Amino acid sequence: MTGRRPESTTEDDVPIEGSIRAGDRTVTYLEVGDHAGPLVLHNHGGPSSRLEVELFDAAATANGLRVVCADRPGIGRSNPHPDRTFQDWAADLQLLADSLGAERFAVTGWSEGGPWALAAAAYLDPARLVHVSCVGGASYGTFGANWAQKFQSSADALGGRLALHFHPGFTLMYEVLGMSIKHFDDAYSKAIVKSVCDADREVLADDDVMTTFLEASRECFRQGADGLVVDATLLYEAWPFDVANIDRPVHFWQGSADTLVPSAINEAVAAATPGAVWHPVLDGGHFIAVSHANDVFAQAAKDLAA
């Protein structure tokens, strides 16, 4: 395992970037919060990357947590793993916890990171994984391939059809998205602001939040679009695990006004998950992961302390 501070400093609460080996692959992560605190492994959304975790630095520090976010394979600085599965990533998360010296740990996931948190709940030992949170999770393959398309925006529904039936088109869609974020980030940010609810616009009006969001999105395409294509394809395909078998507590956080992952999707997933604990946020949007980060991480801290 290697680790370094991104900037030269002696302060204890600055982000630390590091990496571990998973077989012949490198998995790169960023760590924020209290570096001596209990471990939370956060799963970033898409398009996003390990840099997303900087949005949660204040909440992590306030709750005394060490929050680590790893780039999934082919994203950011993590090596590709094109044949990976949900179970493979759950194993990577456990290996990361082992490498960081954590016997007990929590897992969170936002947006396209939500399903990877649910996979951890499905595959990892609850004696070690003591908290799971899925925040506005993009649970598009829970009950079969692209089952959620009737609730999605036209763009996301099209993405699902391309992922399942015309993969070259799906790849091209993400390549164009990557070019937009890299070279026309002002237009991209305006498109995001236009597509979300009022509560999300208030969150994104914070320049620091928007800057970090854009940096995390841009970093997703450091190696091109292939990593995100693999990632998103797995979300749209029928999942290999059944949430009906998850009877350990899983916290679902959902904004009622979320336009990117409508509430109906996760209401159905939570209803089918025996261990679900539902946390609705009235009039909240997709960015409740930021606006309600303290609530999410306070729950994680409580479970880690139990």
Automatic annotation (TrEMBL):
Residues 40-300 form the AB hydrolase-1 domain. InterPro entries: AB_hydrolase_1, AB_hydrolase_fold. Gene3D superfamilies: alpha/beta hydrolase. It holds the Pfam family Abhydrolase_6. The keyword Hydrolase applies. GO terms for molecular function: hydrolase activity. Keywords: Hydrolase. It comes from the Bacteria. This is Alpha/beta hydrolase. It comes from Mycolicibacterium sediminis.
